[in-house]
Amino acid sequence: MKAIVSVLGEDKKGIIAKVSTALYDMDINVEDISQTIMQRYFTMIMLVNLEDSKLKFSQISENLSALGRETGVDIRIQSEAIFDSMHRI
Amino acid sequence: MISINEIIETNRMVQSQHLDVRTITMGISLLDCIGNTVEETAEAVYKKVKEKAGKLVATGEDIACETGIPIVNKRVSVTPISLITAKTGGAVKLAETLDKVAKEIGVDFIGGYTALVHKGMTDYEKEFIMSIPEALSKTDRVCSSVNIGSTQAGINMDAVRLMGKVIKDTAYLTADKGSIGCAKLVVFANAVEDNPFMAGAFHGVGEKDVVINVGVSGPGVVKAALEQVDGDLTEVAETIKKIAYKITRVGQFVAEEASRRLNANFGIVDLSLAPTPVKGDSVARILEEIGLECAGGYGTTACLALLNDAVKKGGIMATSHVGGLSGAFIPVSEDEGMINAVEKGILRAEKLEAMTAICSVGLDMIAVPGDTTAEVLSAMIADEAAIGVSNNKTTAVRVIPVYGKTEGRVDFGGLLGTAPIMKINTVSPAKFINRGGRIPAPVWAHKN
After folding, report:
1. Chain A partners of B11 at a C-beta cutoff of 8 Å?
2. Share above pLDDT 90 across residues of chain B, in percent, rounded to a whole number
3. With a cut of 0.90, is the ipTM above it?
4. Which residues 6+ apart lie within 8 Å of B149 measured at CB?
5. N or C: which end of chain A has fewer CB within 10 A?
6. Number of inter-chain CB pairs under 8 A, A vs B
7. What are chain A's domains?
8. What domains appear along chain B, each with residue ranges and CATH number?
């Protein structure tokens, strides 16, 4: 299953490193990244593949939320399919 | 890959504009559960609902987790119980069974304590309808509906007369909880067989064995989009259509996923804009955003017609099967803006009736004085049914004559919200109601 990880929050050092490490630890491959600063806010979107991960989606989601709380940014993971469904005809 | 802006747009809709899927409703046929005794039937019903819908709540939660879109309610609708118990009687016992299994599988409502008597009632259906107050007072999660008219059949005024009394009795028997039983009882004209929304959901006999119907929502998203529009009403309509498309795509996705995971048939997506009592999730506020000082004034019906039509046009392409009620809901107690308009004295009962002529679904969640007579309630039903039957659309009455109260507010809790008790016209329609019989179908019903 492919999913989108979105990270939003105040820009600070090491955000990409921390999120990438957490994904690596859960055996999740990052296939694409785009990142920008919008209205002073750091915004990063990662397309990830969950195929190899042994964890349940809810566990992955919880781990990423916890990391977000630790680092002071909002991290969420959502199925890519919902965005495709909503924004592509 | 999806763009950053698209992802942010979706997540903003959820986080600050209350986008959600209002309900996943599993329709289950109980026709194969009819036994020789009501006990046999009850056992079969319990087993079937538990087996088919046992994983409904967990599946809904999984899909919500994976998509990031909240799925507020998981519900079950069943074949009209008046049909299932026609042979054995004992409908109230079956209501208790439905309540028990609903609690065990964790759904908040189970709909289908229903009779379809739009043309006539059998003796048993009359007995069944008279059991509704008892069934609603002995259960917490069972919802009931009665179809009393249709464009093809006209209006069964004997049933309309009976329903005035049934609503009064339900109010009395649930007086200790603000007459909440009436909030779970809908009187329909042109009822649909695949409605996912409560209290009027039931699983029609024309349906497959197990079906998933999904109701989307999102008044807050529509309002937020309109806040950016300074243009004319064509631009307003276009903006609503685009948003409705996106909202409905969410419903389509959730319906497909839920059907696949629960091994059920995809039924329909209901395009209704359903409000909640939460601030920022109101249909009335959309009408005000279009340009009214307050919902209920002149212009309200026209704004609602525009909104209702644009939601349908946007939503129809987004789903493979449209169904249910599909229109803007205007339940008073469940909409913060509607409550505000009623309490200011601007939105009155007569304007509400006019609004029901062009949107789904009818006089919905309206609290009226507890001393309202059964005849007046019946006449309200007859008027709504006339609008539905004449316009070939679904209309409904879900009215709560709050026992022992004539003014103030009544709080039902949760999604059912808080209703200000509305003043209504009390002039007697008793002679009209007591004539009984049937109002013939309108001339344009005869199309064959």
Report:
1. 6, 76
2. 87
3. yes
4. B118, B155, B156, B160, B188, B189, B190, B385, B388, B389, B439
5. C
6. 64
7. 2-87 (3.30.70.260)
8. 1-439 (3.20.70.20)
